[in-house]
Design brief:
725 residues, alpha/beta, Rossmann fold, 5 domains, eight-stranded mixed beta sheet, seven-stranded parallel beta sheet, binds adenosine-5'-triphosphate, RNA-binding, ATP-binding, nucleotide-binding, nucleus
């Protein structure tokens, strides 16, 4: 006789969701666009078709004695923090208590960091601290507030991250948090974009969950195979005991399920990385978190200047007000204020006073000086209305330190020493062909910046039709798609990301070989940050500015603001004789795209008419429904498409041949090319075109001045122009 199963229905949030282990590497690992993965065990999911669509019912199988989240919370020792927790719990069992930094990481030894962090640095082969890390870490560990300005890709995340993790790890090791209560938030890191927030969270988690090495008795790291989600699956389900991590880091960003976010916060988080908009939404509902923010130990503004541009101003202002010692000012949202009366003073916090870190690659000197001067004793601050500029906002930061340390090691002229800049001047209508030529001539991971989303929408299908692996990134894409595209871009050695300035800040994508400014950036900061996606961490990088005549004034002003002249930037050598062939390919690709676009539009219109007619309960004209005319035109379109595609295929199959090279007699003649083809010295698909690095193919400046004196004059002739916004 079968035993009757006991079932009960519970709400989605009442289930015992558990974060799933995912592989880590420093940087973005978004699993094809998944922000966070959770699993639930012992629950049957049934789908029912209803008038409102498909509905899922979750039925807990009690025979398996699976606790719900509510039951779990009632048990001691089961609070789990952050999406990365199972890994963290796993690492915790191997918490490192000793590390021979004196011998293994001598350059880091004087910082006396927590052994866990040393082991993580060692396993990532970060043998030397970067300059900003060397200067910042001792100050931060000594309790100073720090304003750090250093070039892009110089390791600013760990400059503020290591001191925070060090203190949290040290205090967690000496006095573990009480098991039952939700652990209070200790550090808040605010970042302007979702991608950057997720990246910072992943970067810090890598330092906590170091998987590649474990220590032997003498503290010597020893290689160990990293566990992956699939390994775990093969082993037959979760094998890791789910104990709380020592320190948990989580990210809260827009575009992520709010239910998941609530669960993450309920489990308790030590370090929260967030975008201001989503964090403020949560703070308005979560009193406990708002209370935590008032008693923070660390506050970090990463890429503070961009936060203003990203339209987070009001929310950022409101969050910063919560962190101030005396809550006696007008809050942006009065309703919120009445609910959240101030904690009397930060002195009540069990932690020492809050430390504030402000980091960016671009904070004006003037602002840095103002920040230093602006400190006033508690309670005498003026100007309590809502902040309206970055200056205004940062001047209201409540540094507890009367002398915040300003560490500015940004390079003169804003250019990283390992970056090579080139430019191409051409008509606006020739930008496409120059971009196409560059992408073929210098394959690699290329990030192309455009000023408008329309431009990205136009170029993406063209480059795809031309056979180039192209991915778009802009704010009108769904978050999941944004992360997926980033993942695709970074997983292929030869790929192209067409992006707006949403990708200009902070993103640490491994080995971006080229940055192309398809349109001139609107600000100097944007130019610096765009360039900063390549030439990171002392690697070499290349940036190309494609400039049309009507952009020259802006270019001149931009370089003027950097204390340079645009003519200091070498012109790129272009194989002009190849451009005609490339233009032909582009023309056909554009035609295909236009025909396809018309076809899609017709289909959509028809569909829309049908849905609208159904909704209004009206009958469509029989002529309209008969499809005869439409069929005819779609047949014409289809056959045109077939023809055009065949033309493009033919054009793409024709090799691009350098001037003076005969493809009929490749073994002899004035330039026999066969030996070089066999030796792989030519660029693929380009016969007779030498394989070179983009940075090695510029027209030397002197030569340019002599041969093109008129053009040179045009670039320098007009003085005193101003940047347009
Ligand atoms: N000490 C180190 N040694 C070697 N590599 C490091 C070190 N510290 C950080 N890195 C690596 O350098 C890269 C850039 O670091 P990070 O993203 O923190 O730079 P950043 O200064 O914040 O850049 P941006 O201004 O563009 O945001 C990362 O891939 C990081 O893993």
């Amino acid at each position: 006789m079968s035993k009757k199963r006991k079932t009960r229905h519970v709400a989605l949030d009442g289930l015992s969701w558990q974060p799933v282990v995912r592989t880590h590497a420093a940087g973005l690992d978004f699993d094809e666009g998944l922000l966070e993965l959770e699993e639930v065990v012992g629950v049957q999911v049934e789908y029912h078709q209803t008038a409102n669509g498909r509905v899922a019912t979750f039925t807990v199988d009690d025979s398996k004695d699976i606790p719900t989240a509510v039951e779990k919370q009632a048990r001691p020792q089961t609070t789990i923090a952050s999406g990365e927790v199972t890994q963290t719990a796993f690492a915790e069992r191997r918490t490192i208590t000793a590390f021979d930094s004196n011998n293994l990481l001598p350059e880091w030894h004087s910082f006396s960091l927590h052994p866990q962090l040393y082991a993580a640095l060692y396993s990532q082969k970060f043998v030397n601290p970067t300059p900003i890390q060397s200067l910042t870490i001792p100050k931060a560990l000594g309790g100073c507030d720090v304003i750090g300005v250093a070039e892009t890709g110089s390791g600013k995340t760990l400059a503020y991250g290591l001191p925070i993790l060090h203190e949290l790890l040290t205090s967690a090791t000496s006095s573990p948090p009480p098991p039952k209560s939700r652990r209070p938030l200790r550090a808040l890191i605010l970042a302007p974009t979702r991608e950057l927030a997720l990246q910072v969270s992943a970067h810090l988690n890598t330092c906590l969950n170091h998987h590649d090495a474990t220590t032997t008795a003498d503290g010597e790291p020893q290689k160990q195979k990293r566990k992956t989600t699939s390994d775990r699956g093969r082993e037959g389900g979760p094998s890791v005991p789910r104990s709380p991590p020592l320190v948990s880091v989580a990210a809260i960003v827009g575009g992520m399920s709010t239910q998941k976010q609530r669960r993450i916060l309920e489990r308790g988080v030590d370090v929260l990385v967030a975008t201001p908009g989503r964090l403020w939404d949560i703070l308005e509902e979560d009193d406990e978190l708002a209370e935590d923010v008032k008693n923070l130990r660390y506050l970090v503004l990463d890429e503070a200047d961009r936060m203003i541009e990203a339209g987070h101003f009001a929310q950022l202002d409101s969050i910063l007000r919560l962190t101030r010692r005396q809550f006696n000012e007008v809050v942006t949202d009065p309703e919120f204020r009445s609910e959240h009366q101030p904690a009397p003073s930060n002195d009540a916090s069990p932690w020492p006073a809050m430390q504030t870190f402000v980091f960016s690659a671009t904070l004006s000197k003037e602002l840095q000086q103002n920040l230093k001067k602006r400190w006033q004793p508690r309670g005498v601050k003026k100007n309590n209305g809502p902040a309206s500029t970055l200056d205004d906002l940062l001047l209201r930061l409540d540094f507890r330190d009367s002398e915040p340390e300003i560490i500015n090691i940004s390079p003169e002229g804003g250019v990283v020493s390992t970056l090579k800049e080139n430019r191409i001047e051409c008509l606006a209508t020739d930008k496409d062909v120059h971009l196409y030529h560059f992408l073929l001539r210098y394959p690699g991971r290329t990030l192309v910046f455009l000023s408008s989303i329309d431009g990205i929408r136009r170029l993406t299908p063209l480059l795809e039709l031309l056979g180039l692996p192209t991915f778009p990134l802009h704010s009108q894409l769904e978050q999941r798609q944004r992360l997926k595209n980033l993942d695709c871009f970074k997983s292929q050695a030869h790929s192209i990301l067409l992006a707006t300035d949403i990708a200009a800040r902070g993103l640490d994508i491994p080995s971006v070989s080229h940055v192309v400014h398809y349109q001139i950036p609107r600000t100097v900061d944007a130019y610096i940050h765009r360039n900063g996606r390549t030439a990171r961490a002392q690697r070499r990088g290349f940036s190309l500015l494609i400039c049309a005549p009507d952009e020259r004034r802006v270019a001149r002003a931009l370089f003027g603001s950097l204390g340079r002249q645009v003519t200091d930037v070498e012109e790129m050598n272009v194989e002009h004789h190849l451009l005609d062939k490339l233009k032909r390919r582009l023309r056909v690709a554009k035609e295909i795209d236009a025909v396809q676009h018309r076809a899609n539009k017709a289909i959509h219109e028809k569909k829309w008419m049908r849905v609208t007619a159904d909704a209004l309960d009206v009958e469509l004209d029989s002529d309209y429904l008969s499809d005869n005319g439409a069929d005819r035109s779609s047949r014409v379109r289809d056959s045109r498409l077939v023809r055009l595609r065949a033309d493009l295929k033919e054009l793409l199959s024709q090799p691009l041949v350098a001037r003076g090279v005969s493809t009929r007699y490749i073994t002899y003649g004035s330039r026999p090319v066969a030996p070089a083809i066999l030796a792989g010295e030519y660029q693929e698909g380009m016969i007779g075109v030498e394989k070179t690095d983009a940075s090695a193919n510029a027209v030397p400046l002197k030569e340019k001045v002599v041969t093109n004196a008129v053009e040179f004059e045009e670039w320098t002739g007009i003085q005193h122009c101003t940047m347009s916004a």
